[in-house]
Amino acid sequence: MPDQGPSWDVVADVQLLLQFHFMQNALLAGTLVALLAGVAGYFVVLRGQSFAAHMLSQVGFPGAAAGVLIHASPVLGLIVFCAGAALGIGALGREVDAGHRRESAAIGSILAFSLGLGFLFVRLYGGSAQGIYAFLFGSILGITDSDVELTLAVALTTMASLAAVGRPLVFASVDPDVAQARGVPVRLLSLAFLLVLALSVAITVQIVGTLLIFALLVAPAASALQLTARVGRGIALSVALALAFTWLGLSLAYFTNLPVGFLITSLAFAFYVAVRIVKARSAMVAWS
Amino acid sequence: MLALEFMRNAFLTGGCIALAAGLVGYFVVLRNQVFTADALGHVAFTGGLGGVLAGLNILAGVFGSCVAVALAIGALGGRARGRDVAIGTVFAWVLGLGVLFLSLYTTARSATSGTLGVSVLFGSILGLQPAQVVVGSVTGLATAAVVLAIARPLLFLSIDPEVAVARGVPERALTLVFFVLVAVTVAEAVQAVGALLIFALLVTPAAVAQNLSTRPWAGMALSAVIALAVVWLGLVIAFYVALPASFLVTGVAFAMYIASEVAQRLSRREGRA
Q1: From the CA of B254, how many Å to the nearest CA of chain A?
Q2: What DSSP string runs through B187-234?
Q3: Which are the contacts of A264, defined by CB distance < 8 A and separation ≥ 6?
Q4: Which residue of B has its CA nearest to A209?
Q5: Is the pLDDT score of B226 beyond 90?
Q6: pLDDT band at A5 (very low <50, low <70, confident <90, very high)
Q7: Closest by CA position to A58, among listed A29, A78, A38, A80
Q8: C-alpha distances in Å from residue B244, one per residue of A127, B237, B249
Q9: For B80, left (φ over 0), alpha (ψ -120 to 50), or beta?
Q10: In whole angstroms, what is the distance from residue B46 CA to residue B51 CA?
């Protein structure tokens, strides 16, 4: 880690941050992830699919471990497993929802098995405790050049597809019945979004890990939706917050040696709580 | 196999924990509280590591934090629903805090103690400490006994809350007791299969039981028996095959779940034909 601590000289700090190649890769991948997670997360919250994001990321854990086991990249394994799970959910043709008893029991069973499977894969290639923690809670180390390239490719394709279907997707998310009546292909859009979500989850896991996915994919968008009801502004705000949490989290992790997953979740959580408190107080002022 | 002390400990403690998890899990699924259990698993991870970091026993940390959070959830009267953004964000942060404790703990000690977190996350049934054997077995049996004692009013309340309340079933007290039972069971299950895999004992056996029988008492008994079978089968396989025990437990549980789903679909199709 760095020889010198951070100072108030921002330029010097940035130079310190960028002096190692692993940190350049982490910041590059983190920026791409934050851009995508901010946009995709907005739709996740708008569509009430945060639980699907949670589920997809846990299915990704054995994927990442399997990627290492067969000497491929963990990102590749994540992408394959997450996309497979998304297609599976789509094929069942039902919304993933924790509200229903039978479905939540089924999902719980699948999640336990998939995390157990991931543990098996890690044990099979003799992975260390640190390796497991990196998958589960994220890491600023170990993002390779090819991972960054893959992240760039995934981020570009998913952002392009989101931009292409953005308008009908908002329509279908806010009022599916009217959208359907107006001839918007709601079911097709929902499947397409599930795939976009799977890819976003897959690359986000690299930074914050399987278990802390909410910090980048849900919390920034949830804060943004509290602050503005306008779609364009909301997406911009969600992206800006995701970028801020990622950059700050990565930099703090670099200088303090604290785990990046903890720092990013804490930033996201603190901001979300602050927004809720401000909203609650202004609502009270408006009442009185 | 039983000549080895660690296997005897695993069968004994795992069995007691499985009984409790099967019985409590039946109500967890019946009352649609799967994601309360999930949230408590996250709390157990953070609480256990926090306990160790504070110089306390890991058991004290796991049990204390689970019961405290369960009482809080119960007092708020809310259900920790998976789709809820606010609750998801809170519990992601709780896990993040656990990661902080983990890194503080591993930097404070030598690098070899880095496996503590893994055993909290994925269990360590083959490496139980003597204290864990005693505490796990006793609390397991005690939890099972309490569930059986309150099973009748709890069933009534779970299946038809309005009529139950009208008949004088103490809803608030019973719900609170149930939350504490879930917390204690989660804390026990963490020792056996780990914080991330508690569903394999707490949810899957109950889901299998509900696929096989719609009668509550039979379902409860089935759920306990299946949980016991899952743990013991997992242990037997783990003894002969060099695979991690907690994976085998989740694998056996999942296989049973798939089998019960298939059986149920087939019988439904026959019933229709």
Answers
A1: 6
A2: HHHHHHH-TTSTHHHHTHHHHHHHHH--SHHHHHHHHHHHHHHHHHHH
A3: A138, A207, A208, A212, A215, A216, A245, A246, A249, B96
A4: B96
A5: yes
A6: low
A7: A78
A8: 13, 10, 9
A9: beta
A10: 8
CA distance B111 to chain A (A): 10
Distance (Å, rounded) from C-alpha B6 to C-alpha B19?
A: 20
Determine whether the interchain pair B92/A219 forms a contact, defined as Cβ–Cβ distance below 8 Å: yes
Q: Is B29's CB within 8 Å of A48's CB?
A: no
- The ipTM value here is 0.83
Q: Mean pLDDT of all residues in chain A?
A: 84
B193 and B249 in contact (C-beta within 8 Å)? yes
Q: What is the pTM of this model?
A: 0.82
CB B210 within 8 A of CB B260: no
Q: Residue B97 and residue A97: Cβ atoms within 8 Å? A: no
Tokens of A225: 């939706």
The reply to whether residue B200 touches residue A268, judged by beta carbons under 8 angstroms, is no
Note whether B62 contacts A: Cβ–Cβ < 8 A.
no
Q: Which member of B30, B82, B254 has the closest CB to residue A113?
A: B254
Q: Pick from A251, A250, A223: which is nearest to A236 by CA?
A: A223
For B81, the closest of A99, A102, A268 (CB atoms) is A99
CA–CA gap between residue B193 and residue B230 (Å, rounded) = 11
Q: How far is it, in rounded angstroms, from Cα A190 to Cα B158?
A: 35
Residues 6+ apart with CB under 8 A from A198: A56, A79, A82, A83, A85, A86
- Within 8 A of A113 by CB-CB distance, chain B residues are 200, 250-251, 253-254
User: Nearest-CA distance from A259 to chain B in Å?
Assistant: 6
Residue B238 at interface with chain A, using a CB cutoff of 8 Å: no
Identify the pLDDT of residue B82: 42
- Contact between residue B186 and residue B37 where contact means Cβ atoms under 8 Å apart: yes
Q: How far apart are CA B44 and CA B67, in angstroms?
A: 10
